[in-house]
Automatic annotation (TrEMBL):
Localization annotation: Cell outer membrane
GO molecular function, one term: efflux transmembrane transporter activity
UniProt xrefs under PANTHER family: OUTER MEMBRANE PROTEIN TOLC (PTHR30026:SF20)
Taxonomic placement: Bacteria, Pseudomonadati, Bacteroidota, Cytophagia, Cytophagales
Record protein name field: Transporter
Signal sequence, renumbered to the chain: 1-22
Species assigned in the record: Flammeovirga pacifica
Amino acid sequence: MKKIMKKYILFVFLISGFQINAQNKFLDNYINVAIENNYGVQAQAQNIQSVASEKEIIKGQGSGNLEVMYGYGISPVETRNGPLNHKVSAGIMLPWFGTRSTKYQVVDEKVQLAQNQKMMTENTIRYSVRAAYFKMIQNKKDLVSARENLEILSSFENIALSQYENSKGSMVDVLRVQMEEEDAKNKIEGLIQDSLVLYQQLQLVVNKDLGDIQLEDQFQFNTSSQINLDYNPTLQSLTASEKVLGAELTTVNKSAAPQIKVSVDYGVLGQPQGMTAENAGKNTIMPMVGLSIPLFNQKKYSGKKEQLRMQQQSISLKKQETENVLKSEYIMVQNQLEDAKRDIVIIQNQLSQVDQAIDIQQEAYAVAKPQGSEFLELLRLQIQRLNYQFKQHKAELSQWEALAKLSYIEGVEE
């Protein structure tokens, strides 16, 4: 029992030092594979390209259609150089200066928004993989402890049989330990079934056949006691939405500006009748520049600008609310982390004490008279030891989940 206790304490020491160890390469690999294979991430990557392609559409919309008109002089206008028999006009409407660049800015901000939304999905996947991985480690440790418990109970059964054969114990002690062994076997079967379910859950999150899962309880999280939300994807996404609306507001202002029309008229003149001129019959070319002023559409643009401003205010309020929720959640998770650390220390002390009690009780049973109470207490202590081990593993899981949650809230990529 003392050898077992020493091994267990060493095992706990290795676990408790996980924050200073190197990052878990197996967990990193599962996270990368999950992000790579996630359909949501793939769809958002396509969406980023789709949004970026809007610039090509803007290039095609940079100017209006070329307008070409032809006029035939049924009753041609007489000019000094001759009658205007034919007239061809070609013109194009151009946006106000800087309109296209503002539209490009809208696209750039939309691309940034799409990238932030993709980061949100990746951050969620990263947390989901870690949570599933941590539960598998807890299950594995529970299974190791349960099997170790069964071995110890089996040794207790041998001791009880030896005591019974030497008329120092009761057959009831043998039956008691056998009943506990049945419970232990049932617990092991349940944990094995749980491990299969957890394996399937992790495989679904990763979206790939993983084969044998490599479980290693060494992690590193870049978190601090002070919250830093600068890299939180949700807040970054809301900030990007604000910038999109700001760019759209600038575009609306440009749309309310006049449009510039550039055109040219080409006139075909005939020969003048009854008079002569130096340029008689010479065709005419007249370049023209004009403005299209939206005098009667200002209400439409002012209404659109007001709508965009209200949307900006809405997002700003939502951003503040989200920040408060994240800060509150961060405080709660920090408390969970401190509780888990405190529980681990207490349970380690309890495990050390219960191991000492088992050693003492085992020696007492070996020399005791066949009253049965010593063996019953020995079984109770062993069951208590197993429960402490399960509580230890649960506290470790709570600690890992808290660290992963803090990383998730801050949006830090490990």
